[in-house]
Amino acid sequence: MALFDLPLEALREYRSSVREPHDFDAFWEATIAETREAAWAARVEPVDTGLTLVNVSDVTFSGFAGDEIRAWWTVPADREPTAVIVEFIGYSGGRGLAHEVSNWPLAGYAHLTVDTRGQGWGHWRSGHTADPHGSGSAVPGVMTRGIEDPSTYYYRRVYADALRALETARELAPGLPLLITGVSQGGGLTIAAAGLAAMNGIDVVGALPDVPFLCDFPRATTITDNNPYREIATYLAGHRGRVEQTYATLAYFDGVNFARRASAPTLFSTALMDPTCPPSTVFGAFNAWGSDEKDIEVYPFNDHEGGGSYQRAVQLGWVAQRLA
């Protein structure tokens, strides 16, 4: 893939044209209030993984409408963790298996790996959380489930689950600094969770969206032909009269609008040859971020893999510096 988006100099100045619904805050306040009303105490069950350097527990907590959301809670076995990292998963993936341990607990942090409801069909990582809510006409995948109205859209449930994941992490490790991270869809959920956290008085000391998805929908759905954004274009090709309503719904879930509300320091990443999450859409959210404490790693010759292990090394250093 060659360079296809704006030049880097223009990306740094780019501002998204996504509209902000007049009742954006009220919509999310009502959604989170409804979610909290249905909340119940998380269940935590230790798991024997055969690993000796970390302890792993199977966590089940209440998400939107009190639905069960699954996660792995992994902590160092020989020391008290110094912070909590909540991680969200990329599109089609799930939390995986209990022994699939990331770098975070090995660096001394507690780590909550959160399933995404109704996903986990990707062969690379399985999921264990259902989405029991129905949908009207939709394209295969989850991008258009319930897209006729913001109240029924799939990501309303997922974003509410994401905030509940932060609250659950707080309950599991009270008093520890809280950080959020994720790649692709996980990066988009990181942005949404950071915005919702700021709106709900939850202190987040760092947000690390890696090649984030779910940002700048009007541009993303017209500049790339790659899935998952392509699911929306395919839906609109069949539902020709729903263009305006579809973008009106998506505005409630656009990472740009959540970025404007985020207050945590942040480290983004993007890749300039990424047709899945085009760099202009990433910069749309980054440039709108509500805190001046922000930085972005740019990988000029990479596709959606972005920085990969190079970016994780940068993140580990950034988190250590923030905590120091």
TrEMBL record:
<dbReference type="GO" id="GO:0005976">
    <property type="term" value="P:polysaccharide metabolic process"/>
</dbReference>
<dbReference type="Pfam" id="PF05448">
    <property type="entry name" value="AXE1"/>
</dbReference>
<feature type="active site" description="Charge relay system">
    <location>
        <position position="274"/>
    </location>
</feature>
<feature type="domain" description="Acetyl xylan esterase">
    <location>
        <begin position="1"/>
        <end position="320"/>
    </location>
</feature>
<feature type="binding site">
    <location>
        <position position="91"/>
    </location>
    <ligand>
        <name>substrate</name>
    </ligand>
</feature>
<dbReference type="InterPro" id="IPR029058">
    <property type="entry name" value="AB_hydrolase_fold"/>
</dbReference>
<dbReference type="InterPro" id="IPR039069">
    <property type="entry name" value="CE7"/>
</dbReference>
<protein>
    <submittedName>
        <fullName>Acetylxylan esterase</fullName>
    </submittedName>
</protein>
<feature type="active site" description="Nucleophile">
    <location>
        <position position="184"/>
    </location>
</feature>
<dbReference type="GO" id="GO:0052689">
    <property type="term" value="F:carboxylic ester hydrolase activity"/>
</dbReference>
<feature type="active site" description="Charge relay system">
    <location>
        <position position="304"/>
    </location>
</feature>
<dbReference type="InterPro" id="IPR008391">
    <property type="entry name" value="AXE1_dom"/>
</dbReference>
